[in-house]
Amino acid sequence: MEFRYVAADADKGRSLNSILRDTLRLSTTQIRRLKAADALRLNGACVRVTCTVQPGDLVTLTLTEPSPSFPPEEGPLSVLYEDEHLLAVDKPRGLILHPTHSRFTGTLANRAWAYIRSVGGDGCHAVNRLDRDTGGVVLFAKNAWACSRMAGAVEEKLYLAAVCGVPETSEGSIDLPIRRASERDMKRICAPDGQAARTDWRLLDKREGLSLLELRLHTGRTHQIRVHCAAMGWPLLGDRLYGTAASLARSEALGEKLQALWCRRMRFRHPLDGAPVSVSAPVSAEILRFFDFSS
Length: 295
Fold this sequence. Notes:
ten-stranded mixed β-sheet; Pseudouridine synthase
């Protein structure tokens, strides 16, 4: 990937190393690769990272990175947003997001890498993660530089969930620490000695003992929404790990075999210039069948 940066007035007298590290936020490894490949230029000339710049100078760098360790694989992909550095897609429920040691193909990342490679991208890095049975917005970075710039750049993750039970109020906040149920257990529980976790929620609709909730995460604990909703007495429809006998029976009666959870919207600062970006997934027909929700 070729990247260009025009030095600003505030950059006068700064070293290229300072701009690469502090402004462009390249890692030490990335800077080392630039030096080894003679891939750094100032106004077209090959220079050292100790060289200083003046306002208006053009810094050009060619970033390379190893290909992903997993293979590209053609498959359906619903693109929600795309630019030179980022790709956001609508993940279907039931699809694993990323390859694992036991499963190397058949994931969303395999499909995303095939697509990114076809449009000239260098890599495929998942910025956010969703459980296999959660649907909605997933953001990929097309190169390692954009991925590193996305650290701390996500400002909002908004979810929709269909739950069994009806809250007593129209909105609220769940502030309960979360930890593993046991050392090697995948299941999480709310416990005083857990990690801080906060979820804001709002009731959008209710019908026949079911509720549609809008949930906003302030922390990113594993299974946070599922654990918090279960702790409040509103387990997600279709959630076999955190559901109760009653919620699982209701799920079976409704034909819901996957947890009813979707990442509806992500809001973040763009890695290139910090501009705000908001990406939304359409409301799934899988949730519309339970509620009259179309806004």
